[in-house]
Design a protein that fits this description.
Elements: E1 2-7, H1 27-32, E2 37-40, H2 42-45, H3 50-58, E3 65-69, H4 72-77, H5 84-93, E4 100-106, H6 115-124, E5 130-133, H7 142-151, E6 154-159, E7 173-178, H8 191-204, E8 207-212, H9 220-230
Parallel strand pairs: 1-2, 1-8, 2-3, 3-4, 4-5, 5-6, 6-7, 7-8
Helix pairs in contact: 6-7, 8-9
Length: about 240
Amino acid sequence: MIRIGTSGWRYPEWRDGFYHDVPQKRWLGHLAGHVGTIEVNGSFYRLQPPSNYQKWAAETPDDFLFAVKGSRLVTHHKRLRHVEEALKTFTSSLALGAKQGPILWQLPSTLRFDPATLQDFLTLLPPGRHAVEPRHESFRTDAYFSLLHAHNVAHVVSDAPTFPCIEAVTADFAYVRLHGHDELYISSYSDEQLDEWARKIDDWDRDTFVYFDNTMHGAAPYNALSLMERTTSPARR
């Protein structure tokens, strides 16, 4: 199962391009009709009510999956420490049912790898698929990979010019975030770059979730569709 989509869907910059002539209230359904997954970003900034997740699930195809970005209260404010209550509050708000995909835990760029802290955090995670996106070079170590492998948590392979791209597959699924290779959140991926990512995905030979986060100039949905054409078994064409 290879699912490719975008990080979020509410972008005014897409109005005259991908969403041309599509009313804003139909943006999610329009995008979900073309890709197999979308990453929910608003959940990072504030706790979403269960009714929001139920509404989004109702607007998407039966075989669709959402990834959900974990709360910044857990990752950025508490920095993975003493997060029992915050984790419980966040996960209990999710109401996607069968459309629930992985939960993404994006770490702040100032957070260094600490084995004990990460071990405690991973132990607290509820059942389901989870992925960790570190943004500090200190995570480029076998000790980090081993911890994720032991808990079947995916390391997020990120492509960006401003934080390290650490390529490792640590779980029975892979998770990729493509933020823009040359300009963060902006630059489009070339045919050659998309070919290379398609090759990597095929070589991993496991369930894979890919999200284009180069959203600011509207490249993300088009890059997602192009990569879908290149992979051997995309979930949706």
